[in-house]
């Protein structure tokens, strides 16, 4: 099975945080309730950014930095 890509638009947040737990502080810093949320297996970064009115490209770049990805 291929490794998940953090920038996959269909990647559920629960999978993202399980694969790259070092991204969790980014969600916490923005006061997002995604960590441990019951819908995190269904929501994506796009969904979360829309819900919290964040610019998706900027937020995704922060997640990538936290995960140590280029």
Automatic annotation (TrEMBL):
<feature type="domain" description="DUF1858">
    <location>
        <begin position="8"/>
        <end position="50"/>
    </location>
</feature>
<dbReference type="InterPro" id="IPR023883">
    <property type="entry name" value="CHP03980_redox-disulphide"/>
</dbReference>
<dbReference type="InterPro" id="IPR015077">
    <property type="entry name" value="DUF1858"/>
</dbReference>
<dbReference type="InterPro" id="IPR038062">
    <property type="entry name" value="ScdA-like_N_sf"/>
</dbReference>
<protein>
    <submittedName>
        <fullName>Hybrid cluster protein-associated redox disulfide domain-containing protein</fullName>
    </submittedName>
</protein>
<dbReference type="Pfam" id="PF08984">
    <property type="entry name" value="DUF1858"/>
</dbReference>
